[in-house]
Amino acid sequence: MKNVLVGFAVVFVLGCCFVTSCALDLGGWFVGRSIDTAKAKFDPGVQSDHYEWFKDAYTQLEAKKANIIQMKASIADFKKQYGDTAFKDWDRSGKDQYNLLTQQLSGLIASFNSLAAEFNAAHSKINWKFANRGPVPKEVEQLKSE
Questions:
Q1: CB atoms near residue 128 (< 10 Å)
Q2: What is the DSSP track for 53-107?
Q3: What is d(CA 79, CA 112) in angstroms, rounded to the nearest whole number?
Q4: What are the residues whose beta carbons fall under 8 Å from the beta carbon of 112, sequence distance 6 or more?
Q5: Residue 137 region, left (φ>0) first, then alpha (ψ -120 to 50), else beta?
Q6: What separation in angstroms does the CA of 114 have from each of 70, 88, 105, 120?
Q7: Which tens digits make up the pLDDT trace of 49-108?
Q8: Which of 76, 77, 75, 61 shows the shortest CA–CA distance to 109?
Q9: Is 108 helix (H, G, I), strand (E, B) or coil?
């Protein structure tokens, strides 16, 4: 009987050692993964790349805004050709050209808004908060179609 109890005690102790070892290994794995993730997200090189993305995206947004302003001016100039003539009285080619210009303007605005939404979403991420300083704005207002 004494040998059976000693056997159970040995198995119990070995089992506890095994479970503890596994728990420590698993805990170490989680800690290691957390450290690796933090390094990957907050590494200065990665942060520099994020900041460059913000600068590039903002430059693209400014270029898109300039294209939108130019397209609106082109549409206004085109409409001047017809003066006070009602749109229904325009010739076919004029209507087609006007519709093409307005569709292009809608596409430019959609492109701007898509990049603006991506820019704003990136700014809201916790690990990109560093970019909320300096010449890059915190948020870009989306444009409305006309």
A1: 17
A2: HHHHHHHHHHHHHHHHHHHHHHHHHHHHTTTT--GGGS-HHHHHHHHHHHHHHHH
A3: 24
A4: 61, 64, 65, 68, 142, 143
A5: beta
A6: 19, 33, 14, 10
A7: 677 888 899 899 999 999 999 999 999 999 999 888 998 999 999 999 999 999 999 999
A8: 61
A9: helix
Threshold 0.90, pTM exceeds: no
Residues in the chain: 146
Residue 114 amino acid letter:
S
Burial 102-115 (b: 16+ CB within 10 A, else e): beebeebbeebbeb
Task: Quote the CA–CA distance of 136 and 57 in Å, as a whole number.
Answer: 10
53 CB-contact burial (10 Å; exposed 0-12 / middle 13-18 / buried 19+):
middle
Tokens of 23: 């728990």
